[in-house]
Amino acid sequence: MEDMTQPQLAHQTNAGRMYSRSTTGLPEVPSITTVIGQQHMDLTGWASHMATSHLISDARLAEAVGSHAKLKTLARQSNDAADRFRDGAAARGDRVHNYAEQVALRALGMPHTMAETRDVLAQHNESGFADRFDEWWHNFEVKPLAAEITVWNSTVGYAGTLDLVAEIGGRVCLIDYKTRGTDRAGRVKSLSPNVVMQLAAGFKAEESLVDAQTGAWEPWAYGQDAMLLGVAIGETEVAAYQANPQTLPQHWQKFWALRQVWEYQQAVDAAPNPLQPIGPPVGVPQQS
């Protein structure tokens, strides 16, 4: 759902990613991931680990010992390791998501570029992701109903794009793909619980996009009896997880609360400086 790719109606703004009602409209509501992003996540430990790992594995470290200038250069480059890793993972996620979308479009009988997107993965030595995805698609007998479908909720005020709506085992499923790495045991890494918030927000949509150019929408058809699935796509395997129905009310309430945080943050950012300097009361002698 709404990974790093850019849906037609999505816009990058100072308030985060936002959606408009048509290609000619102005941004109106935040995206699902922008809302969830209001929850602070402390990544300083991970960033420090990435920087340290990069530094100790740098072949130039030995010859840099004793040289302040060389060590400073290595340290600066190592500090960027987390950003480079994050950007690389995001680009890889885009490539894998693109391939998954094309697989669905082909199954729907729509124009697709499945062969081309698979070639792009091969050029980056990432064919394993496509191979495992194809196996999962076949084993789960996925019957797509809609791919990359943009949804809107006017009551709460948000929008997003679902990776896939499909029928699996006779059930309608709302599916969010996550490209994941491989752990030391060779298994695909698990998903963040935040995926449940994403899926719950998609489930609670009120409309889905029909035509981006004209801004035509229709009532959301899959918000009643759908199974919510997070699908972790890795090089060694694909693992599907169902969002526990018993926890959905709590995750939805958390999402609703984060939406309020986003709104009030915009009001705070637009307000005058909240702190104003003042001097001592009139008539009180000042210490020299």
Automatic annotation (TrEMBL):
Region of interest (Disordered), ranges: 1-28
Superkingdom of this protein's organism: Bacteria
Name the record gives this protein: PD-(D/E)XK nuclease family protein
Source organism of this protein record: Yaniella flava
